[in-house]
Amino acid sequence: MRNVTLLILLTFVLGVYLTACFGTGLLDDADSGHAEVSKEMLERDNWVTLYMNGIRFLEKSPLLFWMGAISFQYLGATEVAARLVHVFCILGCVLLCYAFASTLAGIRAAFYAGLIFAAGWGVFLFTRVFIPDILVTLTIALAMYSFWRSRQSLIWAYCFWAALAAAVLS
Q1: pLDDT score of 135
Q2: What are phi and psi of 31, to 5 degrees?
Q3: What is the pLDDT of residue 60?
Q4: How many CB atoms within 10 Å of residue 13?
Q5: What is the crossing angle of helices 79-105 and 133-149, to 10°?
Q6: How far apart are CA 92 and CA 110, in angstroms?
Q7: Would you state the pLDDT for residue 109?
Q8: Which burial class, exposed, middle or buried, applies to 132 when counting CB atoms under 10 A from its CB (0-12, 13-18, 19+)?
Q9: What's the per-residue H, E or C state across 35-68?
């Protein structure tokens, strides 16, 4: 039962959000500007100082741009490659919702928790732009889940600290 519900959630998330990646180009100054920062990071081979159109860009934390640059490196500097970062962040959030709910209320509640998160209008609308919001959501949710599980194992405590570090970088 668990594998079937996870497969349905995975199919739903990839079906909705991957098809939405192909719908539009990069939309506004934030969307295209942030993608440009990732592209210049890859072109300059400078993963420390961010640049946008040749000017230092120190307004945002680097984790989103690192992920975008890695995506561009393997898939090319395209709109789909930029949006793919958000697809994986959404998938991570859905899996965290599933993990929380399956432990607390069972598989059926876990399926609905993941489905409700994935089908939310806010998640869909605010992941159309290459901004770090969904990445911050993922890292904080992972930190909360890891803290909650840290009573059982020291590995989860280390995961908690790593998630907090990723939240600072996002």
Answers
A1: 94
A2: -65, -55
A3: 87
A4: 23
A5: 30
A6: 14
A7: 95
A8: buried
A9: HHHHHHHHHHCCCCCCEECCEECCCCCCHHHHHH
25 by DSSP, 3-state: which? coil
pLDDT at 34: 85
In a 13 Å sphere around the CA of 156, the CA atoms on its Cβ side amount to 11
- The answer to whether 30 and 129 have CB atoms below 8 angstroms apart is yes
Percentage helix, strand, coil, to 5, in the chain? 75, 0, 25
pLDDT digits (tens, 9 = 90+) for 97-123: 999 999 899 999 999 999 999 999 888
Q: Which whole-number Å values give the CA distances from 51 to 12, 39, 93, in the listed order?
A: 36, 9, 29
C-alpha 138/C-alpha 29 separation (Å) is 24
**145: its two tokens:** 């889940």
What single letter denotes the amino acid at residue 161? W
Which residues in the chain come in under a pLDDT of 70?
23, 25
- Among 159, 133, 168, 145, smallest CA distance to 96 is for 145
For position 124, what pLDDT does the model report? Answer: 86
Distance of CA 46 to the CA centre of its chain: 22
The 10 Å Cβ neighbour count of residue 158 is 12
